[in-house]
Amino acid sequence: MVYSSCESKEPDSVSASNHLLLNGNDELVEKSHKTGPENNLYSQYEEKVRPCIDLIDSLRALGVEQDLALPAIAVIGDQSSGKSSVLEALSGVALPRGSGIVTRCPLVLKLKKLVNEEDEWKGKVSYRDSEIELSDASQVEKEVSAAQIAIAGEGVGISHELISLEVSSPHVPDLTLIDLPGITRVAVGNQPYDIEYQIKSLIKKYICKQETINLVVVPCNVDIATTEALRMAQEVDPEGDRTIDLVRLAFTDVSETNFNEFFNLHRTAKSKIEDIKLEQEKEAETSIRLHFQMEQIVYCQDQVYRGALQKVREKEAEEEKNRKSNQYFLSSPAPSSDPSIAEIFQHLIAYHQEVGKRISSHIPLIIQFFILRTFGQQLQKSMLQLLQNKDQYDWLLRERSDTSDKRKFLKERLMRLTQARRRLAKFPG
């Protein structure tokens, strides 16, 4: 038996295996590392999941959440339960902490993972019309506290207005969370007497939505059964699960079929489809309103005649009912008549009644017509004279405060929903 002195060796790692298969070509080995399963998964995530998260964040920044429920992860817990510690561990930044109510406004924490390890940390705090760019993680706590004071005041009250904190770093996960005030049961110091009700109302506003995943933070040193936050979450979600419905736009089926592989072309086509659709909807609405106006003008007299005809038919139906009742007792068959002849008689009776009324009211109608016409002309002249006095425009056009507030609210809602619709139309996929 002959033994060889050269023993075959198994490669001790995937890296070594790749190196052997690629005949020692270091450049190809490096490329194989970059296209490994982890990078493949990340590229799929960046292509399909990341745009969805960015879209939801942009819709929330527009304030669409006031009108529509958006997918979210709500962080809730009792006061001093450790919510801030959990969020700090995820984000790597210090958030306002202390005793009592520290989180006084809902805080939207947007974490974005940067691809390159060399990329610098970036942050941004947004609230109302303010945007503060941050270059250092140590600035976060101060700016968030300042935002809370600007919105909720110097005291210990709470507000429903959102504060947005965006953190971009290579060391954070891609995640968006909403930090809500901690639940307190007893008002302390200068806190409002109904502080518990205010906080619970704010929390329920978020956790009752089916699109919200509730993240309940429970301290390890308390009995989990006595946790108020967990009890509230169980009330709105007794099954312990959440369902999110996805809606696809039917108008983009053709674009998706033909341009699915060309995402920029598909996105442009969707944008064009949406613009044309909006324009056609306006034209259709105008046309429908015009037809209603024409119908009202042409058939307005029919309403009078139809009312008279209805009364005649009801009267004859009552007489027919009484006749059948009498025939039942007398046991004599009723003479049969053609229904069409009966209907003609009904129309003749109704027409005769309306003509008689019209003749009797002819003179009063003429007088009323001329009075209204003269009055209308005089009113028109008076209103035109008002337009000559430009100094009174502001006073004449002053409206009730509640009407102005309502118009402003509806305009803002319309603007939010229009912008959201356009962003959804341009969203790939």
UniProtKB/TrEMBL annotation:
Record flagged with keyword GTP-binding: yes
PROSITE patterns, per the entry: G_DYNAMIN_1 (PS00410), G_DYNAMIN_2 (PS51718), GED (PS51388)
The GED domain, residue ranges: 341-429
Region (Disordered): 317-336
GO molecular function ontology, one term from the record: GTP binding
GO CC aspect terms: endoplasmic reticulum membrane; perinuclear region of cytoplasm
GO biological process, one term: innate immune response
CDD domains in UniProt: DLP_1
InterPro entries: Dynamin, Dynamin_GTPase, Dynamin_GTPase_CS, Dynamin_N, G_DYNAMIN_dom, GED, GED_dom, P-loop_NTPase
Residues covered by the Dynamin-type G domain: 67-333
Keywords: GTP-binding, Nucleotide-binding
Family per similarity comment: Belongs to the TRAFAC class dynamin-like GTPase superfamily. Dynamin/Fzo/YdjA family.
Protein name as it appears in the record: Interferon-induced GTP-binding protein Mx1
Species: Sus scrofa
